[in-house]
Design brief:
Blueprint (H helix, E strand, L loop, with lengths): L9 H31 L9 H29 L1 H20 L4 H29 L2 H32 L6 H7 L2 H10 L7 H6 L3 H10 L4 H12 L2 H6 L2 H5 L2 H18 L3 H14 L4 H27 L3 H25 L4 H34 L5 H30 L1 H21 L3 H13 L1
Helix pairs in contact: 1-4, 1-5, 1-6, 1-7, 1-14, 2-3, 2-4, 2-18, 3-4, 3-6, 3-7, 4-5, 4-18, 5-6, 5-15, 5-17, 9-10, 13-17, 13-18, 13-19, 13-20, 14-15, 14-18, 15-17, 16-17, 16-19, 18-19
């Protein structure tokens, strides 16, 4: 086998990095609110109360629910390549409108529209990467998207800190923080014209010769490509005309869909996005100050990024479900310790700040290095081609619905229960997720259901 960076994988590598820009934008647009929210909440700007902070943050997430749900339909109809191009257009236009928002209503509306693109990218990118990648590099390519999500969040934290530090006295600086996301979205749009079409989609549309030639260019072995395409040729009618009545009458497909929804829930009830969205406000509450909180977020983001690189490599070489269980156990421990540290309130402020930051770093490194990438990887691989786009859309929409619910009520929970108690709650939800992964998710049954559904 030739080196992955050689000519054999030239088109594949190019396409994988371009598609992963969707993950980068997902990460940046969910991470930038972390620092921008404190500035836009000032009375001279949008004058956001805690409840309105929750609505502004969660409006993107609500849009992402709809974007993820609709993405599968359009990806099947128009193709993955065309869909991701339109996603880039929505990213660009909605970002500009968010940066120019004059009041709370405009910001909420345009954040919702931006969420359509975020949700579509979160569903489309891992599925697209899985479809264009040969088996031997599939896990690493799908994981590129997970790494780019964390990289996008890290870049958002860095830009927030730099802009907040250099021009923190200029209240509208949050507009610049948001506007920066236009750069990668325009790059995604320009380069989307040259990426590979999904061979799976070409087969579904009946373009078998083109699909076979493209599979060779992407690095699929000739025998593998012929076997996959010839096998799917027999199922073209079934794959394109499979109705929801047929799906719900098939117990194996229903089982896979339900497990996909459970895995999506597990990813979000961890509480990860409360830290990603409200990290600056959270750190200010424990006494770090505005600038200190912004720079602390860089450490959090950098650790998460490094952890995602090493974690995704480890995941590729180990049983995915076992890694999920290990990750959830780590989440439970670190969040419980975080709650204890905040609740004790007996240590000097400097020590408390250091320990809080350390636990946040460990929690985020564990989640972003293990839990998040392994859940995306499992969802990208677990659904048969006949229903992959639709099932992936439903599973991804589930992550965003859960995310929306948590991000909406988080500021209110903090005010009502206190920071320490809320982290105890998330430690419990991670423990419940661990229980589900041990009792409900059966790898052998998933594999059997996939094989039997694909063979019909």
């Amino acid at each position: 086998m030739q080196n992955r960076s050689g000519r054999k994988y030239g088109l594949l590598n190019y396409s994988a990095y371009v598609i992963s820009l969707g993950g980068f934008l997902f990460g940046y647009d969910t991470g930038v609110i972390n620092g921008a929210l404190a500035f836009m909440s000032k009375t001279s700007q949008l004058n956001l109360t805690p409840s309105r902070q929750g609505i502004v943050s969660s409006s993107l997430v609500l849009g992402a629910c709809l974007g993820a749900f609709l993405c599968g339909k359009y990806a099947d109809k128009y193709g993955r390549k065309v869909t991701i191009r339109w996603v880039a257009v929505i990213f660009t236009l909605a970002t500009v409108c968010c940066a120019l928002s004059l009041n709370y209503i405009f910001m909420t509306t345009f954040r919702f529209i931006l969420g359509l693109a975020v949700g579509a990218a979160s569903s489309l990118s891992p599925m697209y990467l899985a479809e264009i990648s040969p088996k031997e590099v599939r896990a690493s390519n799908v994981n590129k998207n997970a790494i780019f999500i964390v990289l996008g969040q890290l870049v958002a934290f860095i830009m927030n800190a730099l802009l907040g530090s250099l021009w923190g006295n200029w209240d509208p600086i949050w507009r610049v923080m948001i506007l920066i996301a236009c750069v990668p979205s325009i790059i995604l749009w320009i380069n989307s014209f040259n990426i590979a079409v999904s061979p799976n989609w070409l087969v579904q549309r009946g373009h078998l010769k083109r699909a076979r030639n493209l599979a060779y260019r992407l690095g699929f072995k000739k025998q593998t490509a012929n076997r996959i395409i010839d096998g799917r040729k027999k199922n073209i009618k079934t794959e394109t005309k499979l109705t929801w009545n047929q799906i719900f009458s098939n117990k194996r497909l229903v089982y896979l869909l339900l497990i996909g929804i459970v895995i999506a829930l597990i990813q979000q009830v961890s509480g990860i996005n409360t830290v990603m969205y409200y990290g600056t406000i959270l750190l200010e509450k424990v006494g770090m100050g505005e600038r200190g909180s912004l720079y602390a977020n860089i450490l959090i983001g950098l650790t998460s990024f490094i952890a995602s690189i090493f974690g995704t490599r480890m995941i590729a070489n180990h049983n995915h479900l076992k890694m999920l269980k290990i990750g959830l156990m780590g989440n439970t421990i670190f969040l419980a310790l975080l709650g204890v540290i905040m609740h004790a309130n007996m240590l000097p402020q400097v020590v408390t700040n250091t320990l809080v930051l350390a636990m946040l770093v460990l929690f985020l490194a564990n989640h972003q290095g293990i839990v998040s990438p392994v859940t995306w990887l499992i969802m990208a691989e677990m659904f048969p081609n006949s229903v992959k786009a639709r099932f992936m859309s439903i599973a991804t929409a589930t992550t965003w619905i859960t995310n929306f619910s948590i991000s909406l009520v988080y500021p209110l929970l903090i005010n009502a229960l206190g920071t320490a108690t809320v982290f105890f709650v998330f430690a419990i939800t991670n423990g419940c997720s661990l229980f589900l992964s041990l009792t409900v998710i059966n790898q052998e049954k998933m594999k059997k259901s996939y094989q039997e559904s694909s063979s019909k």
